[in-house]
Design a protein that fits this description.
Blueprint lengths: L1 E2 L5 H4 L11 E5 L3 E7 L11 E3 L2 H20 L8 E10 L3 E3 L3 E11 L4 E10 L2 E10 L4 H7 L2
Antiparallel strand pairs: 1-2, 2-3, 3-7, 4-6, 5-9, 7-8, 8-9
Length: 151
C-alpha cells in the first residue's frame, strides 16, 4: 500500500456535514484502502456517549467510497455517488462504540463487474473492537441518468 497525502477524506467521499465520518485516509493501493476515524459524540449516530455497532457498516461503506473516490480522481474523473446494496457475513464483537475511540477500517475489492457492481471485504478494528463484513455496492456510469430513471 502506498501512503497518500494528496487528498483529504472529504475530497474522496461525497458526503458532508454530520454524514462525513472518516477523519483520514491512511493508505491506498490498486485493490485496498485503509482509513481512520474517531467516533464522534456530536454526530447524528451518538446515543449517550456511544454509537451503535451497526454504524460500523456505514464506516466501512465510507471507506469503500473513499477507495472509489481516490481511483476516480487519479483517473481524472469526478468523485461520484454510489449505493450500498447489502451486507453479508457481518460480525461484531461489540454492541456499540465508545465516543472518542479510534477505529481503523481496511477494505479490499474482491470483485468489480463492468456494470458498476462491486464486492468489498471490510475490517474495522479498534481497542477491543473487531468487525468484519462483505459489502455489495453499485456505482452507475451516469448517476444523473440513474436517479432520473428511479423517479
Amino acid at each position: 500500500m502506498q501512503n497518500i497525502h494528496s487528498y483529504t477524506a472529504e475530497e474522496l467521499v461525497p458526503h458532508s456535514g454530520d454524514m462525513s465520518l472518516l477523519d483520514e485516509v491512511l493508505a491506498v493501493a490498486e485493490e485496498t484502502l485503509r482509513a481512520r476515524l474517531t467516533v464522534r459524540d456530536d454526530g447524528i449516530f451518538s446515543r449517550g456517549g456511544r454509537v451503535p455497532a451497526y454504524v460500523g457498516i456505514e464506516y466501512m461503506a465510507q471507506a469503500v467510497a473513499a477507495f472509489s473516490g481516490y481511483h476516480a480522481r487519479e483517473a481524472g474523473k469526478p468523485v461520484e455517488l454510489g449505493f450500498l446494496l447489502g451486507t453479508r457475513h457481518f460480525t461484531t464483537n461489540v454492541a456499540a462504540f465508545d465516543c472518542g475511540s479510534e477505529l481503523q477500517i481496511a477494505v479490499e475489492r474482491l470483485l468489480q463487474a463492468d456494470n458498476g457492481m462491486a464486492t468489498f471485504e471490510c475490517r474495522l478494528n479498534g481497542e477491543g473492537t473487531e468487525q468484519v463484513a462483505r459489502l455489495n455496492v453499485y456505482q452507475p456510469d451516469n448517476i444523473e441518468e440513474y436517479l432520473k430513471e428511479k423517479r
